[in-house]
Design a protein that fits this description.
Blueprint lengths: L23 E7 L13 H19 L3 E4 L10 H11 L4 E3 L3 H4 L5 H11 L4 E5 L2 E5 L11 H21 L3 E4 L23 H11 L1 E5 L7 E5 L2 E5 L13 E8 L4 E7 L2
Parallel strand pairs: 1-2, 2-3, 5-6, 6-7, 7-9
Antiparallel strand pairs: 1-10, 4-5, 8-9, 10-11
Helix pairs in contact: 2-4
The structure holds fe (ii) ion.
């Protein structure tokens, strides 16, 4: 991996505001919008929503190649259709959202999957960004669910996507709500990581397939980790940050050689 810059405690939009360069892709990486989770009791939904509307305005001004929303669109899954259909129409750049545990349920249900599909038009998807393959999955399939047929279909899909990208020589940016791990790969099972059973095997599969970056959310605190050539990035949110960092999103700028910046863009 080539030089890394712009990381850790950087609260400038300097790089996010610079002009796009050939060979560089830009992804606006938005942590959990989770309308209704912020401080303010009954006002939380409206405040979180208003903050995210400002995020969309800022993204539209910056015109990245992609806006990626890292899941937990709402705090209560049934609220998904209140504002998201309207919000998605406001984006003037391509946008991909990955389902969060608050969208799917901690044990994924058919009803929640179908609601997400009605709003976003898909549950998971894969697209080409420059030389890169961007794969947005659904991390709720790593947890127990009665929807075993959907789970098997998903596992087959992501396996095929990893194989296809590797065969095509496309380095991969993998994106899901929950990160594989937060501190280190052998950490105990928690609310914040993949189940330990199978975690290392999945990660080895990612390494072997050419995954270079893992963009996620869920932790509501800043996470930057790297292992075996894969960099895991969790940004600030726009609803509640457990590490008390300001609200905002991150502009991920990635060059063909794998060098990147991931600069904070503050949202009031
Ligand atoms: Fe969340």
């Amino acid at each position: 991996m080539a030089a890394v810059f712009g990381l850790g405690g950087c609260v400038t939009a300097r790089n996010a505001q610079s002009a796009p360069k050939p060979g560089i892709i830009r992804i606006a990486h938005c942590g959990d919008p989770q309308f209704g989770f912020g401080e303010g009791k009954e006002k939380a939904y409206a405040q979180d929503l208003a903050r995210f509307e400002r995020v969309i305005e800022m993204i539209n001004r910056e015109k990245p190649d992609l806006a990626f929303i890292a899941g937990d669109m709402v705090n209560v899954a049934a609220d998904m259709e209140r504002d998201w259909p309207r919000l998605l129409k406001l984006f003037e750049v391509p946008v991909v959202g990955t389902p969060g545990n608050h969208d799917m349920g901690n044990n994924l249900t058919k009803e929640n999957v179908e609601r997400f599909e009605r709003v976003f038009g898909y549950e998971y998807k894969s697209l080409k960004l420059g030389k890169w393959r961007f794969i947005s999955g659904n991390s709720q399939y790593w947890r127990p669910t009665n929807e075993t047929a959907r789970q098997e279909k998903y596992e087959a899909w992501i396996s095929a996507e990893l194989d296809r990208a590797k065969a095509a020589g496309e380095p991969i940016i993998l994106a899901t709500h929950i990160p594989p791990f937060v501190s280190e790969i052998n950490e105990k099972d928690s609310y914040e990581n993949y189940p330990k059973a199978g975690r290392a095997a999945r990660f080895r599969r990612y390494v072997a397939s050419g995954v270079k970056f893992y963009l996620s959310g869920h932790t509501h605190r800043l996470v930057v980790r790297a292992r075996d050539g894969i960099t895991i990035l969790n940004p600030e949110t726009t609803c509640r940050n457990f590490d008390q960092l300001p609200f905002g999103f991150r502009m991920f700028k990635l060059a063909d050689d794998g060098s990147y910046s991931w600069d904070f863009v503050r949202v009031g």
